[in-house]
Amino acid sequence: MHSSVSMVIFIMLKNILNIVDALRVEKNSKLDESTRAKKGQYMTPAAVARLIAGKFRDLNGTLNIIDAGAGVGSLTTALVERALNSFSPNSINANAWELEDTLLDGLSDSFRLCEQAANLSGVEWSSNVNNIDFISHAVSLIKQKNNGQQLNFNKAILNPPYLKIAASSNERKLLRSVGVETGNLYSCFVALSLLLLDTGGELVAITPRSFCNGPYFSDFRRLLLDGNNLNKLHVFESRTSAFKDDSVLQENVIFHIIKGEAQGPVEIISSRCADDQNPDIRIADFDEVVSPNNSARFIHIVTNDEQVNIAKKIGGLPCSLEDLGIEVSTGKVVDFRTRENLRDIPGKDTVPLIHPMHFDNGLIKYPILHKKKSNAIVLNDLTKKMMVPNGTYILIKRLTSKEEKRRIVAGLYTESIADVEMVGFENKTNYLHAKGKPLDFDIAKGLWVYLNSNLVDQYFRQFNGHTQVNAADLYTIRYPNREQLINMGKQAYEFNQDSFDKFAKAL
Q1: Which has the closest alpha carbon to 106: 45, 40, 47, 27?
Q2: pTM for the whole thing?
Q3: What is residue 333's three-state secondary structure?
Q4: β-pairing verdict for 342-343 and 376-378
Q5: Domains of the chain, CATH where assigned
Q6: 367: part of which helix (H) or strand (E)?
Q7: Which bin fits 217, alpha (ψ -120 to 50), beta or left (φ > 0)?
Q8: Alpha carbon of 171 to those of 124, 223, 337: distances in Å?
Q9: CA–CA distance from 250 to each of 148, 246, 304, 365, 402 (Å)?
Q10: Which residues of the chain have pLDDT under 70?
């Protein structure tokens, strides 16, 4: 009799998440794809859920779980499955938040399975399914906690929605009332969950990598890193590895944080997919992940020894852009705001308007006839303030397509492109300049070589997990000194990737 009961328990525990995953697939098929994209809904496949649950360090004793944006409960189920199989919990209280009405019956079914599994294991079970807005509820709970009420949350497991929050929205006002300043649902769900946790509580989440860099997430990074232990980072080699069934274009990262614990070394894992049986694992010093010299607290995910050497090489270069007297600005011409001044073909009253479409193998090809994009802008009192003096500049695409091989695409703009006094750069470009003036030609060529090298591209990917290049990212990179840049520039006669990589390697 005892052995048959044990077998029932064994079978139940081994199949619980697989049953819930079938629910996920069924519910996913009933949700309109465009609606899911608008709401940022990407439910977690079983293999990914197990991977996320596998990051928790301690699932013994009493577990009081936060699962915000729970879907059909895949993540909580994975956590329960692991706790019952590999630890000795005595009670589990699952707290889920889900606004999508069509998922609620699936979520309730999942929790009933969890309850059965817990009961078979002799573990006390309770649960709360909250069909209400997580942000407003969490803010209310945080205020209660700040006033001394015990909440006792000690585990948070999250695959939050990915959507921007308007700066003037009620959600942003609520977030600010508890000291959270962030503009995306995923970062706000993580921030609120972290604030809800007790000291020593663990949070594991899968989110886009976009929070690792850039000014928009600086406050969020400080909230994550200040006074907490960033214990694990797990990345995938492919953008689509984690969510194969969904149109997810951003790179994802799984991270594990222990609230209130002193920072130690960081375990960095890289895998080809969620089922990868032989992921690459390395232990990194925290200073290698978050440089003490970077006040913006960018998070570098360095997955192997080659990447370590690249980080050391770039970090050891002598100059910042400020040291070189160089600044980065975003092109001032927003074409839809000045349509009446745009021209398809250059004329005597116009100056060039350079778009990303003009980039051609490291150079600027001008003009290029295009159905939707203009080549020129009328120079008048209104547009003059958007222009810069004609001369030598380094232009960098602000956005690259996922098909492009490189994240940083730098083009060399030269004075000879047009016989004009002023030139306009479109808003989807960044440009390097000498405090508002054109760059020295040889310095510019050296920067052109350096920024187009694979050395810089590989370094950039360590902290940038999306296709946007911000001015702040370019300020973060270290650069060769003026003499080194001039030397590289004088040796570069044309765009040649092999030569550029050779020059950068020799620095």
Answers
A1: 27
A2: 0.88
A3: strand
A4: antiparallel
A5: 2-303 (3.40.50.150), 327-505 (3.90.220.20)
A6: none
A7: alpha
A8: 36, 18, 29
A9: 39, 11, 22, 30, 9
A10: 1-14, 27, 29-41, 238-250, 402
